[in-house]
Specification:
Chain A is an alpha/beta fold and 349 residues long. In chain A, 34% of the residues lie in helices and 20% in strands. In chain A, strands 2-3-1-4-5-6 form a six-stranded mixed sheet, sandwiched between helices. Chain A has a four-stranded mixed sheet with strand order 10-12-8-13, with helices on one face. Chain A has a two-stranded antiparallel ribbon with strand order 9-11. In chain A, helix 4 links the parallel strand 4 and strand 5. Chain B has one domain. Classes of the chains: A alpha/beta (349), B alpha/beta (428), C alpha/beta (75).
Amino acid sequence: MKKLKFAHYINQFYGQIGGEDKGDQPPVVHEKAVGPGSGLEKLFGEEGEIIATVICGDTYFAENPEKAAEEITDILKKYDFDCFIAGPAFNAGRYGMACGAICRAVQERLGAPAVASMYTENPGAEIYAKDIYVLETGKSAAAMKDALPAIAEFALKLARGVEIGFPEDEGYIPQGRRVNVFADKTGAVRGVDMLLSKLKGESFTTELPMPVFDRVTPAPAVKNLARAKIALVTSGGVVPRGNPDRIEAANATKYGKYSIEGIDDLVTDEYITVHGGYDPVYVLEDPDRVLPVDVMRLLEKEGVIGKLFEYFYSTVGNTTAVSSAKRFGEEIGRDLLANGVDGAILTST
Amino acid sequence: MQLEVGKVMVRDIRFADRTRMESGVLHIDKNELVKYLKEDASIKDVDIDIARPGESVRIIPVKDIIQPRIKVKGCGQVFPGFISDVDTVGEGVTHVLEGCAVVTCGKIVNFQEGIIDMSGPGAKYNSFSALNNVVLLIEPVSGLTKHAHEAAVRLAGLKASYYLGKAAQNVQPDEKETFTYNTLTEAARLYPDLPRVVYVYMIQSQGLMHDNYIYGLDAKGILPTLISPTEVIDGAIVSGNCAAPCHKNTTFHHLNNPVIMDLLRRHGRELCFAGVIITNESTMLSYKKRAAHFTQKLARLIEAEGVIVTEEGGGNPETDLMLNCKLLEKSDIKTVLITDEYAGRDGRSQGLADVTAEADAVITNGNGNELITLPPMERTIGVLESVEIITGGFSGSLHPDGSITVELASIMGSLCELGYERLTTRLK
Amino acid sequence: MVKAIEELGIPAVHVCTIVPISETVGANRILPAVAIPNPTGNPNLSQHDEFMLRKNLMIKALDSLKSIIEEQTVF
């Protein structure tokens, strides 16, 4: 059997270049296994070899992910490999994000199968698990000796073109795809079985989990509105003309923070919407229809509120993942707290 | 109530001079059956065709599927309210033609009619491909309203099933099974230590030909009520439904309701089958709420400890499903829901229109949006072109070589939410 | 996002049209908006009337922020 060829991505630390201080390392390639790659190669044995290892600094990547991913796929284009492996990144956030982004780019631009590996709660996992295979590892590098065999086995499968089974059996994070399969028993019998288990208090696994929405305790009310600082937030995609932060029309991966200091009214053309999920005609005529700055400024002048916070936050709610929205909310919330904001009004379209 | 079901095995079907069962072969006098069905003035013409397991045959568009049967002892006759009067059925002895079904086909009534492939990859998506099917191709008189057309086809299917069932009347069954449904106090006395399980049977009742009948009564205006599982075996519930082919409960499904069958078989052993509550699926929120509250109360009155709820169809009936679940769980009754999903062609969409946190035990019978391409069959019974207008089909579904690309939604019973088949969905 | 902000102790009100979804997702202070494309506006009204509509809506929003609530409330 022909030896399968792998390409590997690791960061500056595992690439033995340096620590945080060498985070700005631009992508380089070595035509052999490096760092944890050597461990993988030993596990491949006669079946596979690593023909190229790309090393890049986490900071370099994080500062311009699109450009870095392109540079890296350009480097990889020259090599003929059966499967691409990134990580393991464990809980290193920027490293995990880089692994995910590069794997996705390899899949899309080079058409090669790819697998990343990191800890379940690495932000890269949540963001990229839908698009690429993300194998779960332990939290820290101490888990390396367990991670490598799992990665090797999975990568060999991918390289051979063997059909990948279910997450519980193969060890990757579910990609969110419901797939039809035939069970051993009919739905009716499975249903009666499940009910009997439930009645006995035995554990069972539902075949169709309900989406879960947690509850938060209501925050205490604003005590003195006339002295309160109130902020505006929107998921309606209202942004300054030109969309300087390039917020996406759907499935937003970011939000923007924009100054409205000295602005009494949002004026046509100065502000636009980038939200692709509703008819923008009305908000383009008057952006206050989604982000009511004019009225809030008046209420500030009338003394109804103490102050309108000088920034507003904006993102796009169109098919944006719940987890992304949660993240935006957390960051915005921390910013509001740091700026002594007493209350927030959030508008949605 | 006790019902003995005698199964007469059908291993082949042949047209002959006289309708009868002989050596496991169902002989059909085609002329006599056609004449019988044409007694209905709404029917202009009927042709009858036979489709056997393994044949390269595609049947399309299929409206309903019924299993021939006949009561040989006991009150009333099968399909009460249609074939016979409304006397209570479900006791005595009933003979069924096992391995055989009547399939109503012909000019399409409404776009929710489906496909049965007797061989090839499509055959594994329902159990009808393993049956000897008597296909009725029904041509209505011109100018008939859709509702009258549907009624005519529905009745023709039931009549044919009764007519063919008569062939089993004096035949010694190959297999017998006796089903017992105890009264409430009997059951409590006999099985005090077994968990009391109740089945909540949701029945489509949304009009626009999404209707079902109980002893001939349209299910639209009913309040939830009790019915014996054995009455269902005798045809107390009949489908008039034109809901999506994948998950409308055909009359065959009702007659062989797998939840009822399993509960009856486990009754007295693993559980105490305390009863069946039939309820409907209205299009109005206040009606949905009323039905859910009524179902909850009935379940409490018959002291259910656990309930299985099956849905019919999808979309707004999911609100009924979730209301039933929520209210039952609120009364400390444990629920299991049996349903299906429309999770999009990529399987990434939320598959149910409504959800509730209490629905923690759910069985799924598959994702109806999965796209599938089925090879051409040597013979089509019916109208192959209708594939482009049925649910799950689309413009371009029919390829020049006779192969078809459709969503699973087009295949009869592929996702039957009574849990008749073995298809399910898992997360990848 | 509203919930995340609220979890940090800052009262937040969700001005939206599809209230049932906000209820399911769990915002605590919910204020029904005018319409999906214009939650705080109404292009069918005169400029003055629209401004008054927006002002009244925002006053209601502020009222919700200063209301003491124990559980999810639609204002």
